Batch of 4 targets.
Target 1
Amino acid sequence: MRARDRQLFLHEERIARMRAALAALVLLLASTASAHHEGKYHYCGAGPSDGIEFCPWEWSLGLGAAAQRAAGSWGWALGVDLALGRKMPGWFGGGGRVERIAERTAGAVYLEAGILLYLNLGGGLSLRFGDATRFGPHIFLGFPIPIPPTSGWLKETRFFIEPYYRPAFLFDGAGEHTVFHEFGLLFKIWSRRTHYED
């Protein structure tokens, strides 16, 4: 096998392993969320008819700014993040951002899933485009800090600030990978449609 063919084979094998690992992560998170019924952050009430448990969807919308480092260069990113959950603590979502690093501007989109306990833990897949197209897995680690509950017409909503770290392991078309380190801060609006014990 020629060196280039072997390199492409190893690249495809790595991508297949990453996809399998991501699928296993999503299944684990989904099963954890489905098994979680009542706890500090969750309450399921009676559904439309007797005997049916009803857990309404919750959503969070975040706006964020981040510092990035890749291949020895620093840059910045501005983005938006959306997450959905039904039986907390499991959630899934995605987002997009504009990045500027090494005097080059690029865009990125991502899908991810995770578990919100005391820390926000998750992972997913990222696609970066602009100067070059790169694709690969990422990890998400956040620490949500609640802002005191509001009253009046905002009583069903909570606000958070969330410092986070998201490393992404992105591969280009030739199989070469670059690690993008993202250190950011999200301002999040969380629809509080279930009951919480404060």
Target 2
Amino acid sequence: MSRCSPRTVIVHAGDADGIYFARSQEQGDRLASEIVFSPDSGGQQTLATMTTPVDRPIIAMTVSPEVLVWAVASGSEPDGMTTVDAQLYVMDRTTQVTTIIDTGTDWFGPVSLSGDVLAWGAGSGNGDTGEYLHYVGTNAIYKLVDAPGLSDVVVRGDVIAWRSSTAGIAAFNLGRLTPAG
């Protein structure tokens, strides 16, 4: 198995098949990144490559039997004038076709994935305190709630958990997901 320095691995996710990870290297004002799969049987396979401005790193990753998802931070394009929202890259594990989802948010907390449902919090560091839900294969992004300082949402099976705050008191909420439609 080939090896990489732990300093180059920036995010990772695993499942019963192996480990998926992203590694990046600065090249001037650009960041060259690879999405790599390392199966339990050994070896490594590069699934995707991308180049972004250095201020737009890959910041989160998650995997399900159907898709591999990684998040790229918001930032500016090389012209210094154009700002790009954070994006989710959703790769179908069978076809390896990747779809880019413009989130309309400028940062992420962790990304959670269950079946065809993606959930994330915007992190609230840049003023967006939202927690979001997206059904893979649709164009819809649903805002669950604003939760200043608590932006965190998780999906497992058909259960969703999210944080909220009322009158300064934090709460963890549980609900059941329904199919998009």
Target 3
Amino acid sequence: MNQGKLKEIVKNHYLNKELSVHQLDRLNLLNKKFLFQWSTPLVASFVLLFFLTFFYFKTPPQDIIAEIAYNHMKSLSSEYESQDLSVLQKKMNKLDFTMISSAKLPTANWKVLGARYCSLQGKMAAQIKIMNLKTLEVYTLYQAKLVNKNLKLLNGHSYQSGVAVKVWQEKGLVLGLAGKKIRLDFAN
């Protein structure tokens, strides 16, 4: 028997065959089990990846507040002396962002004294000494580039080791103000 004739016989044989309803149900059940075996771990992996990404890349405000309080308590002197942020910006050319005059700290009430480099959450930041012109108390203002867009809700006010710290976001930066006491409406 030649190979062409054998193929035709096998083809005709199987064309006339049908699966029973019972056999089709068993195949469907096997298919569902197979999909369930692979889909459950796959869905679980995506959910786990989502939560890890969300929590890993989101720094809670309390972590930043604690770091700001710690840096403030060091009481390091300014490396660069100036009352003008633009002058300090030129001197601190390693910063990958432009320091800002915060709307919460109007220049009528606050005076810049100087600045130095520091880090927040492992990223380069500016540590700016400022004075409240009404109370003559010196505070430390921290500015860092907002790297993680998940920090949209970042806003906090706390006391850490006796230091009052207020953290907020403004113009793409994370800002933190540390001192003896900070009112929630500290702009005035």
Target 4
Amino acid sequence: MFLGVAVVVWAFSSMYSTRTSLSKYSDSNVTNVDNDTTSMDSTLKSKVIFDTKAFMADGKRTMTEEELIKKIGQPDKIDNWNYTSAIGNKYPIKTLTYGNYEYKFNNGLLHRITIFEPISYNSKDDFLEMFNVTKNSQSKLNDTGVAYRLTNGSIHDLWVGYNDKTKKTEWIHISYSDLFD
């Protein structure tokens, strides 16, 4: 599913009622998959819609601001702000915003991606595959019925706010470090 090293794969099929202009923020390595079906079939397999692993520059570190901009272009907006942790430590954060997607950097490296776009899903069991996250023996899963959170998987943290009645996500936090814990 990767084209070269760390390629972003955003596959939006008709199972998602909201089509996005995400390709506006992509480069030529993005693969779009469009399966035209007229109804959402419960047997429809989930697909990777946002590849969290694609933001690992060399498999050991996340992308820099410059690498992200080179990959998906100039952001719509840039904000500089300070994050204060639960124990009172302050960290300078630079947020690059692309539509409903925020990329948060500290010391020039990507630490969190936040998606404020409703994304349809068949089952919350599909969240890991949808974001190309894998579990391991150290992973911990917590599902409150409105928020699904996997820590210590292939990325530090995948946290999805969801509404099982509408089968749509409300927000998604993808964290590559414990900075925002």
